[in-house]
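Customer escalation, tier 2.

The customer says the design service returned an amino acid string that "doesn't look like it belongs to this structure." They asked us to rerun it and document both sides in this ticket. The original structure tokens are below, unchanged.
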């Protein structure tokens, strides 16, 4: 290129630059600001389908973009002029294209909303404060009266330091979001829309990103592919699938959720949770179907506090009480952390339980676990359920295999009929084939009794805590132990003491232990006292029977009974042979070491004890044997044997017991 050509090109560029600068400097004088104000107001009103007002005078600037700033812009609520405005903002800045403006066309490339305040409200009758269906974004098909969308050029929108208030009267929700800074990219109604930014919700900074491939179909009730992400310091949630807005917002797709602390997150969401040792990190992956304030989760893979589970859940927050129902399956479930006492907080037994605590939500959840850990207690295959409804709770263990046997129990709790601040509880339970020694050893280093246990429990009580409820409980307890040991109670030593008529040392009763064939107990509880209506202990050729009562607060025992020696060591034959020796006695005093006194045996029986029927145990082994001239059911003073354990004595064999 010659020097002349380069000079001409340079001067042409300089001339164009001068013209552009001059045009920019003169644009504020060439542009009719009032007309621009009117055009922008009409454009926004046309989109929203609602009246728009601009109270301030427009300001035109040219650098870095040609911008028209409108002050005090408001969009009237669809609920009426007397209601809070749908949108009120300090400034609305419209960045415009130059060339279309010079020929009288107003094309906005970006809207910038400065300190906008959105008021989104849904009334009980379904009316909303917004009404986009009345705007130019939609058209009504006359043939079917259905809304369709028009192809409208939009652009980019930014929100600076905005606020959002959402009120839903039906759901009784009132949410406020502050410090909202968002960027919305939506070139036209036929193209995808993307929103990203951050905000402060309930005092927690949250960043969001969402993208809809077909936003107008979504708005008109159709389906649109959707991606959604939300993050904060405490949680992270991702959803990828489809969305629809038929009546409520519907989201269906793959859900991934993580939380650093579920206890903090639940409290942040407004749920009241009692202090506890855990509810820490949680990770969830599932197939999700959300409709409004309800969500169904399937194919769940969840980890919470190192417990992993699978299953399905449905969460519904549309009513006055939240609803949670579903089925969860664990391979290994460790509940020990939730049973730990929090420093400075009451123990689990002393935690106050109020009727209103059971009214926050309705729950119907079925649980199963191959291995269940409750601190020192470990259970095998377990199936349980928890149901709460109308301030009533039912906690049921359908079956739990542990320590060689099977457990089942049901706990029902509901408001008291007489005291509105108390709960009335009813506990029913059964134990079948459980090895008592192994079970009790998990709770205590030295089990007071061993053997195979069968038991039935039926208790009811009222109280403000579990401890108070247990103290006020009344009901029945029946137990049968077979082929076991009683520690610290020597039945042979007791026989020797009765023979000597109180001339032996009382400590002899508590040295060693007793191997027994069957121990059966039938008792009732009430008024802070346990009444044993019938007790029978058979150990080789010895058989002890009687009734007792024991104070549950002071532990005082009052036991009246009879100790009999037979020739045979087989308890099944005792009913067919006369006794060799028989002694009446009383045990009175502290439970751990009551005093023994020999009684005179009466010559006439005074009644019979109720037979305790136990599957697989002959009645002849359990039922008291009628003795000639001996009361087979001493006066029901009601009492309880001291906790004991000892080696079996074979026909008064006083040699040291062999180790088991």
């Amino acid at each position: 290129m010659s020097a002349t050509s380069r000079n001409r090109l340079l001067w042409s560029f300089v001339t164009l630059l001068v013209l552009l600068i001059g045009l920019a400097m003169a644009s504020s004088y060439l542009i009719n600001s009032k007309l621009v104000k009117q055009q922008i107001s009409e454009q926004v009103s046309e989109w929203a389908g609602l009246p728009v007002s601009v109270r301030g005078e427009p300001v035109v600037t040219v650098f870095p973009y040609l911008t028209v700033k409108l002050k005090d812009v408001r969009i009237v609520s669809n609920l009426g002029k007397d209601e809070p405005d749908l949108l009120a903002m300090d400034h609305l800045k419209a960045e415009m294209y130059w060339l279309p403006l010079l020929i009288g066309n107003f094309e906005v490339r970006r809207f910038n909303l400065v300190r906008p305040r959105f008021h989104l409200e849904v009334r009980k009758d379904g009316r909303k404060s917004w009404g986009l269906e009345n705007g130019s974004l939609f058209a009504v098909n006359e043939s079917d009266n259905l809304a369709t969308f028009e192809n409208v050029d939009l652009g980019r929108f930014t929100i600076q330091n905005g606020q959002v208030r959402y009120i839903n009267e039906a759901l009784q929700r009132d949410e406020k979001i502050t410090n909202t800074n968002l960027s919305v990219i939506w070139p036209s109604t036929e193209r995808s829309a993307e929103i990203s930014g951050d905000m402060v919700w309930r005092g927690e900074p949250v960043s969001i990103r969402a993208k809809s491939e077909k936003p107008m179909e979504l708005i008109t009730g159709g389906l649109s592919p959707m991606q959604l992400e939300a993050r904060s310091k405490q949680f992270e949630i991702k959803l990828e699938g489809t969305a629809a807005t038929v009546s409520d917002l519907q989201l269906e797709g793959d859900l991934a959720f993580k939380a650093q602390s579920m206890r903090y997150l639940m409290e942040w969401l407004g749920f009241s949770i009692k202090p506890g040792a855990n509810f820490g990190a949680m990770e969830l992956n599932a197939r999700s179907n959300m409709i409004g304030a309800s969500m169904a989760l399937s194919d769940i893979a969840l980890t919470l506090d190192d417990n992993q589970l699978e299953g399905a859940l449905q969460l519904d927050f549309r009513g006055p009480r939240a609803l949670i129902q579903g089925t969860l399956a664990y391979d290994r479930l460790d509940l020990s952390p939730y049973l730990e006492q929090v420093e400075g907080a009451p123990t689990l037994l002393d935690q106050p339980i109020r009727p209103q605590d059971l009214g926050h939500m309705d729950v119907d959840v079925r649980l199963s676990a191959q291995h269940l850990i409750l601190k020192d207690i470990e259970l095998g295959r377990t199936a349980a359920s928890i149901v709460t409804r109308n301030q009533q709770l039912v906690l049921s263990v359908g079956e739990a295999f542990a320590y060689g046997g099977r457990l089942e129990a049901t706990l029902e709790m509901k408001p008291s009929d007489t005291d509105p601040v108390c709960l009335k509880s009813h506990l029913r339970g059964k134990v079948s084939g459980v090895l008592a020694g192994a079970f009790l050893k998990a709770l205590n280093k030295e089990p007071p009794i061993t053997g195979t246990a069968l038991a039935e429990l039926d208790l009811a009580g009222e109280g403000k805590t579990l401890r108070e409820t247990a103290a006020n409980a009344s009901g029945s307890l029946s137990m049968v132990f077979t082929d076991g040991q009683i520690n610290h109670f020597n039945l042979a030593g007791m026989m020797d003491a009765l023979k000597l008529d109180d001339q032996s040392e009382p400590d002899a009763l508590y040295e060693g232990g007793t191997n027994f064939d069957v121990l059966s107990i039938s008792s009732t509880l009430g008024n802070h006292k346990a009444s044993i209506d019938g007790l029978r202990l058979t150990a080789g050729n010895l058989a002890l029977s009687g009734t007792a009562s024991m104070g549950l607060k002071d532990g005082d025992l009052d036991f009246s009974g009879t100790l009999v020696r037979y020739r045979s060591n087989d308890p099944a034959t005792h009913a067919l042979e006369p006794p060799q020796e028989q002694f009446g006695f009383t045990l009175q005093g502290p439970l751990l070491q009551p005093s023994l006194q020999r009684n005179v045996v009466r010559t006439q029986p005074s009644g019979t004890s109720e037979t305790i029927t136990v599957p697989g145990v002959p009645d002849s082994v359990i039922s008291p044997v009628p003795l000639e001239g001996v009361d087979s059911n001493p006066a029901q003073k009601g009492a309880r044997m001291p906790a004991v354990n000892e080696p079996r004595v074979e026909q008064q064999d006083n040699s040291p017991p062999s180790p088991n």
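Tier 2 assessment: The sequence is consistent with the input. Residues 602-660 have pLDDT under 50 and may be disordered. The first strand starts at residue 52 and ends at 54. Sent an explanation to the customer and offered a walkthrough call.
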